[in-house]
Amino acid sequence: MFGKVEKIDHGSLMDRVYRRQRHVYDATRKYYLLGRDQMIAGLDIPSGGSVLEIGCGTGRNLIKTMNLFPSAHLYGIDISREMLDTAQKAAERAGIADRLKLAYADAARFDPQALFGRKDFDRIFISYAVSMIPQWQAVMREAVAHLAPGGELHIVDFGDQKRLPRWFRAVLYRWLELFHVTPRNDLFVLASSIAAGTGAKAEARALYRGFAWISVIRCP
After folding, report:
1. Alpha carbon 146 to chain centroid distance?
2. pTM for the full predicted model
3. Any idea where the Methyltransferase domain is (predicted)?
4. Cβ 184 vs Cβ 213: under 8 Å
């Protein structure tokens, strides 16, 4: 079960947004949250390695991760209690509840030692969450701070859509606003800046003509 911490205002907003949507989230989002499975496949988790998902949502990605990397130790945090409840039930149905630890936390500032009894992770990933988090730059920096030596941060989210028709980008952006989603067109720039400041390496990959981006920061 997930831990308890102080109430977070953004969490209340996310609870309102997803209180009902969480029940159909996976069925509807699979058509446009592109690149998630490519990102997960590229995690290349070492045997017995630890993996944290920031903004774990329904638990779909963590279950997929376990299927691909069965020896991994899984952790997830989210700011929505509604989503955490859904993730917990999904883990129970998948038979991995004993190998997955979930916690309610603000990704911009969290203590993995207090939440999970560990100080860092071999892999951390964020799937279509930086576009929903107001303080997303702080979240990325916080994530890198909790990577083990040789650890990696993987992010997949909406790209800048520049190679797609302008009308498509305009319609998509208006629709995303309804769900408090803002594509971060400077994601790659920030990742490069964080990497340069920590001695890490940043990798950038655009998918589907820029519809989705995958950003990776690899620590030394």
Report:
1. 14
2. 0.86
3. 51-151
4. no
